[in-house]
């Protein structure tokens, strides 16, 4: 797996730039006979799709997914199912606005991949960020929709739990609220606050960071493997691979640095007395292997680097200049990372499910 | 890839349990003609070796590395060099004290991998934690010593920057202090404080968490690759794979959630005026690719789960019981993670260096 | 790695069935700044395309390739070049004749993948063979066209050297003849003979096997790696992965079983006296690594299993029955394997070129 | 994946040179709870061990295997079993005769890897061939002994079926004879003939090629996967990776080039009437997936390149010279390839068994 593939048994290879013909992915290793239609995938894509509120980029993409291969009508039941062969998914790029990119074509946006892509490849797709565009994440969401169907009984949900310095009140956590506000925020009151807060940021042409929490419930004990096949190691890689993510933690995460062994121990009791564990500091993973408790991960998303305030930079010739980025950008790109994170975790779990079944039976 | 191998071009496969015959690793893909002796590796191993102060486990292991393959005396110069073939490194287990493990043989230590290994494999090596033992990390340190020699001009160093709630004073940072205290702490004053602080914890039979920071200097711009071959994604996986690590961050990490786009932008200026970048919030990585600035990562290590205070648990039959772990344990296992982290980052960089050279030339 | 991807640094993932929406592939790891247009790929696809003579299936497919990603107009030169990001190639299926498949839907064709796909997946795409259709090889040819551009100065050509029991006369070998007959045959006289020979087979509704030889010239010494990264091992895997291939040999191949060490030795002499080697029994590979001589491989293609003569078989319920396959089939499927083999070898060489450059520089 | 690892789920990484400290391998991904002792492995190693007759190299190695990790006494039964963690196997080199290598140190043996290793790495281990030594195959045999225990009910056996131009009489095939002669030959009469034939070759200081056949019985239908995960593709890679192998075929192999579709079809009949298939031209694999019939593969081994007759070559400076190789060499290295081939096929089958169980359940 170098480069653009992730997973070992449930393998996803993504392709595509924001301003190419299409983006998409190939899902390889999916078990056969799983019911799968474009509608199953479209639902998740619609949740990620920008332009649905004033708080995400106004770029309008239909994000209509097409299944190119790997499914057929079951010869007996007639229902469309997977065949065990690679599932190619394609999303055509439709809103490639013939915008004038001359402003940024030869300048590097601070905090963006412009400089590093050019340093590596000697060329970069300046139109919308090319491969580094958040648009690429649509492919992951499509793959994640397939992954969700692989392990029976697992639910993967994510929520925005912090925007700028403002954290939600965990006592107000209500998963049902996620769909009621444009922030995927489980705290109704904080969501109302975020609306005003982000409006101000948006109007200033600025941007702000965020923290997202992902929770996977129903994961059986035993997924993962020691050392470099650790479930948390793969989760860390998966979340850190999302655009603009700068930190990942599992369970109590960085807070465990302040805990004693007594505080951090998730004590156990006989399962006929209720849950097997009395706490979940571990976030559902011990020694790289799932415990059967909910898997809990959090990650930090930095603020969008495309802002209206001019910043010092250089151009391709190395000369000092300034840059400001007009256009359709996300004031808080963390918002759209919510369904992407769900998809990544679903892919990791599907992969580990198949790997576990392979090794242990 | 899966399980016990990491890296793609510079590939390390580790093996071994704390109470088996030996631990070790196979380093595959190392370029030829690099001078390499056992002494080159032994130095790093000695830094990780436990039993050197009262603040680490009193288990005494010589940790003497043996090179089994992959090197020979150069036919002309006579110096021992790599040949391009796999380098197998072995460290024999010498201090397998024939301890009485009956206390923990059938009980799960809360916060430990005991329960999950058994849930996965139907068997676990209760003697010293088996594969989940911190002893496994000696193999990584050995591999890291090889990795350090692969990229010319790169220095990878790590330091303990927090123990429990106590953070170092960054104004006091002095790399030279790292070797002067048993905590790899760059702040001389705080190191003195940690000595008293950890003594108390040790005497109580308790344990405490920590935060470690790794810095890689001299990394050229251009290492890494988009999406799932991101340098930060691989760093996150590498650090999260270390025993007891619960969080990883790059550059400003979780703090970026509170920043605006203006604050987070690492502005640039013409390189003849000094450094190319005016700040390094990004921690040396943008879009998954190195910028040429120092790469900065931090990670949190939870407190050792083996403590003297009894904790509620169950035994293999599912019956309620209590457990306390006597024996030679680390009051702050984060300390020994410092050279391990250096090794992991060195391996990731060596791998990406070879991958980059392969794709781009 | 597993399933539908081949290559490590130059990685190709193919997808698609004969009767799905489209087939195609994702080429990952291609170096940047290589000129690449759809026309570059179309030429190779046209050579493989069926329906060009009466000696291949009459299925008519435009086989028009579309580049979905990974290229852009160079900002300075304007020429379309690779960017270093994944290149997705798609070929839409246009001739999915709404044929009546009821004859074979529930029966297994002897010698075909019908039975094994169903044994593995519990479902099979009976329409045209699904994933096992020779149509999948168009994706490989497309990938191969990209691979050809990766190593400078390498030429990969293949030729049909045997049909049924009839071998070409090697004294008549003329690469220029390859394009002059529908068999990719380098022996003009034998090509004329094959036309009559295959006409008879075709009219009888029968089929016949063939042997193909691939030659790669201009490959530098040093590509490959010991043991499981051997160049010949990867060539064997690549050729054996082509539909209907049952044998692969390198250099003198099976004939070396009859040679003595004296006969088999490729003697060497100082290169200023002419070629470095006096013979090429080894087919350009020693110890898994290229010698700098032409790489020569041959492979046997079994006769198409779809024939007009009824054969005993069973149906899905396990009941005895007979089957004969009407429709548009290849009397000698080996013919179309010629450009496919070139593509596979080009991919293997590109991969090893990048791997070698990565490890050794 | 690359270099020195083979397999995806059942992964074997080998290391070691003929004149280093030790050779060995790490077997990763082996299921837990499989009984495994050193004696289980030693039996296979003893079959491969040289010096047991005058027909193999007189190099004397104890080839004593040591299990370094991955097993423990089962806490309840006491039997030594696998734990699911990596199994490291080591065989120390004991007969590193301090021979004078000055004759070949600076010359390239024709037909040997000397030239290519030096071309690739700029260095080669001239002592006994280093990594290219047949000694490396002991590691594979050790890994194969583990693999044999992974799939229940599968038997993998190999036999020498041709030496020089002399083929066995298939009517005389008796597996029981394999152990009764030093050639692993199933034809008693031909074995007697080979003894005289090879004595002559040995006395002349010459060498001769051979063909080996491997048969795996009891393999269930369904192992393998389309396209690049084909079972026959992996078998071809595995066999071609053995030293000196120049050709591989499955089932009827190259002979299928001469067959018509009618002849090549393996007809089927209802299984209550006897075997499901009426013939096995396919060698147990169709479309890359096992049929449930015996898997049959053959491969050609070239004659040893180390011979007593002087051959023209060059030295490291490129000057013309001659070389002849004294020492302990195999007159027919194909003989020792017999247990190696069994081991490789066992590894491939174990890997595909785990992969299949992972994807399909």
Automatic annotation (TrEMBL), chains A, B, C, D:
Coiled coil: none annotated. One of its GO terms (cellular component) is cytosol. It is an enzyme of class 4 (lyase). Its cofactor is FMNH2. It catalyses: 5-O-(1-carboxyvinyl)-3-phosphoshikimate = chorismate + phosphate. One of its GO terms (molecular function) is FMN binding. CDD domains: Chorismate_synthase. GO terms for biological process: amino acid biosynthetic process; aromatic amino acid family biosynthetic process; chorismate biosynthetic process. NADP(+) binds at residues 48, 54. FMN binds at residues 131-133, 243-244, 287, 302-306, 328. Keywords: Amino-acid biosynthesis, Aromatic amino acid biosynthesis, FAD, Flavoprotein, FMN, Lyase, NADP. Reduced FMN (FMNH(2)). PANTHER family: CHORISMATE SYNTHASE (PTHR21085:SF0). Homotetramer. Belongs to the chorismate synthase family. NCBIfam families: aroC, PRK05382.1. This is Chorismate synthase. It comes from Rhodopseudomonas faecalis. The gene is aroC.
